[in-house]
Design a protein that fits this description.
There is one protein chain. By secondary structure, the chain is of the alpha+beta class. It has one domain. The protein has 3 helices and 7 strands. The strands form 2 sheets. It has a 5-stranded mixed sheet, sandwiched between helices.
Amino acid sequence: MKYITKTTACIMAAAMLTVSAPSAAGDDEIVVAAQPGMTTWVGKVSEDLSATFERTRIPSLNAIPSDYAQVQFTCDENGKPAQIALVRKSRSGWIDRAALRAVRRLKTMHPLPQNVREGQLYQADFIFAENERAYDRVADAVHESHARMLASEDRTVIALVIARSAG
């Protein structure tokens, strides 16, 4: 049986540069400090989450159905995930545990892009698929979930999609 691995990032926000105003001491100099763009930041965090998800030992190749879990979290002042919650359980306890473990082991979320506010809610969607067709089916379900979220009143979540194969 052929298994697949894909990592995709779905971005629901944007950021570019931080501009700090002149100091109160009469400084006429404007300092522009580059912050990671949202796409770069999402790629970095997704890569870190994916690496941990990929390293998780699979108990049995046939025991895990193709499915996904969604984990929401915030970022604490040290750049570590906080208030971690499994908001969509998969049909596999293994996928759920691997997803939660990946978020808990995230090295750092800092530096955050400029337009990300304190208390920002993040969502990592962890897809496990046994083949390309299964991946497409599960990814469609994840995208439908994102479309429902965007259609609702809550449009403040930054979503990351992480995919894992069984092999």
